[in-house]
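Researcher: Good morning. I'm working through a list of sequences from a screen, and I'd like to move beyond sequence-only analysis. For each chain I'm collecting a predicted structure so we can compare shapes side by side. This is the next one on the list. No need for commentary yet; just the structure.
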Amino acid sequence: VDDAPTTKSKNVLALQYLTNQAAFLGGYLDAATTKTGVVATYGGMNFPSVAMYMSGFVAGVRYYDKVNKAKVKVLGFKPGKGVCTLSSCPGTGSFVGNFTDQTAGKTLTTGFFSQGADLVFPVAGSVGLGSVAAAKQAGSGHYVTWVDSNGCVSDPTDCKYYNATVAKGVTASVKAAILAGAAGTFKGGTYYGTLKNGGTALEINSAKLTPALKKMLATLTAGIESGKISVNPNVYPATPA
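Model: Good morning. C-alpha cells for this chain:
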C-alpha cells in the first residue's frame, strides 16, 4: 500500500493512489468557502505521495481563481516545474519532518492563521491534530480539511472543525485485492486509486455546501475523471503573492 516494488511479480499488487484528484476538489471547496481569501497546506515529510495531495490542492485553488476571477492565496506549498507523479512531485513548501509532532502542527497552523488563512489542509497524519487544536484556539471561523480517512469519523468530538476530508480508499482497494485472491482472479501489477474507481474522494462535512457548489463539485469530478480538467497546478495562473 502506497508503495511500488522495484521488482515486478505476478503475485504482488502495488496499491497506489492519485490523491491529487480529490485534493483538487478539496482545494476548490476551500477556495469557495474561505472568508479571508487565504488558505494553507503543509506536509509531514516531503515524499511524492505527500506532495501529491498538496499539489492537487493548489491546483484546485488556482482553478477556482481562474473560473471565478478570484484571488484566493495558498500558503505552504509552491509547485515546481513539471508534472507531479507518485515517483516525483516537484515543489517546495512547509514540511514538519515527521508524522507525529502535533505541537509542530499547531505552531505551523497558528502561523498560517496569523497570515490570514482560515482553512488549513495538513497532509501529515496525526500531526494534523495540532491543526485542529490551533483551530479551536483561534476561535470561530477557522477550519481544517482532513486527509486520508474521514475526520468526523476518526475524531467525532471535533467534527465541527472539519471542512471536509480528502480521502484515500485504502479499505475498498485492499478488500478488492483480497477477494480477487480468494476467487482466483488476482493479478499482479499496480492499482491506481482514482476518483472514478473510488480510490480517492472528497468527503464533505461542512454545512456550508450550497446546491450550486455541490453541482460544481460534481461537474469538476466528471471533468477530472474524463481528463478534460487537469489537476496539474502549473496549467493555471498562480495568484500573485
